[in-house]
Amino acid sequence: NYNVVLVVPDLFDRDQLCALTSLLLTHMKFKAVIVQQESACATYGAGVSTAVVVDVGAQRTNITCIEDGVCQVDSRMSIAMGGDDVTETFATLLKNSQFPYNNVDLSFPFDWRLFEELKEKWCTMNEAEVSIQVYDFFVRTPFVQTTKYQCKVYEEVFLAPLCLLYPNVLNPKEIKWPHREVGDDSLPAKNKIKSYPVDVAIAESIQIASNGSEEKLKRYFTSIILVGGGGKIVNFSKVLEDRVLSTIIAQQSFIERVEILPAPRELDPEVIVWKGATVMNV
């Protein structure tokens, strides 16, 4: 006698959706299923009806414009770049700066968790905080005694997150644009682009969703929601606002202000989508 909300990506495969729905109704015996796209759930969780949802995940950054709770299909965009790229870039910069822990191998889960933790603690996009700092950290590996290291860092903590805005420092990435209707049997077509900054992708998504309307354009530029764990870096939202405002699209449209809305009630950006799904369920 239970109902369930199934949150799916903005770009989904119809066959997979049918299989999941069948699993929930037939095998798990739920009474009813509500299927909703994650960007729409994000707007419900943030308490707004119209916004640009920027989901910075581990491996992908998804951008979608939502108007009155409805996903604007043509605005959906997915870039193969996310928080994991920041972690890898940070690890590379530290390694090139004589990082004291020499036997780093990011293919090992314990080393990956270490650099994820260091990224969250040390990385910042506030230039005022960039100075020579000395930090202590602990390396915990299976069957080996915990070791304490001391590390001196400088600009590495600022440069690593910039890979989201300057992807040329990474290997060529793939960007995916959908050109078919929601629920098409096949996955959306893919166009490969060597580099595509998040700020430019946001501006282009907004331009497509506004469809020539100046009012919609300004509303989208001042209603950006940042969700996901990949963007949880100090001052990232402020830097992203400045970068989006400096894009060619924003300049040609005479946009005077870009605003990333803060998470409501101090919610963790990682749980905003889940919070929106619970609101729907109620």
Structural class: alpha/beta
Q: Indicate the CATH class of the largest domain.
A: Alpha Beta
- What is the terminal-to-terminal distance? 15 Å
Strand content is 15-25%
The residue fraction in helices comes out at 25-40%
Q: Just name the CATH architecture of the largest domain.
A: 2-Layer Sandwich
Major β-sheet profile: 8 strands, mixed
Q: Identify the overall geometry.
A: globular
Count of individual domains:
2
Protein name: Actin-like protein arp8
Organism: Rhizopus stolonifer (Rhizopus nigricans)
InterPro entries: Actin, ATPase_NBD
Name the descriptors.
two-stranded parallel ribbon, Actin, Chain A, domain 4, 282 residues, 35% helix, globular, alpha/beta, Nucleotidyltransferase, domain 5, 2 domains
Task: Produce a short descriptive summary.
This protein is 35% helix and 20% strand. It is an alpha/beta fold. It has 2 domains: 38-80 and 191-270, Nucleotidyltransferase, domain 5; 83-169, ATPase, substrate binding domain, subdomain 4 (Actin, Chain A, domain 4, Alpha-Beta Complex).
Describe this structure in words.
With 282 residues, the chain is α/β, with parallel strands linked by helices. The protein has two domains: 38-80 and 191-270, Nucleotidyltransferase, domain 5 (2-Layer Sandwich), CATH 3.30.420.40; 83-169, ATPase, substrate binding domain, subdomain 4 (Actin, Chain A, domain 4, Alpha-Beta Complex). Helix content is 35%, strand content 20%. The protein has helices at 14-27, 38-46, 83-95, 109-122, 156-159, 198-210, 214-221, 236-245, 248-252, 272-281; strands at residues 3-8, 32-37, 51-56, 61-67, 70-71, 77-79, 133-139, 147-153, 174-176, 191-192, 224-227, 260-261. Strands 3, 4, 5, 6, 9, 10, 11 and 12 form an eight-stranded mixed sheet that branches. The chain has a two-stranded parallel sheet with strand order 1-2. β3 (51-56) and β4 (61-67) form a beta hairpin. The two termini are 15 Å apart.
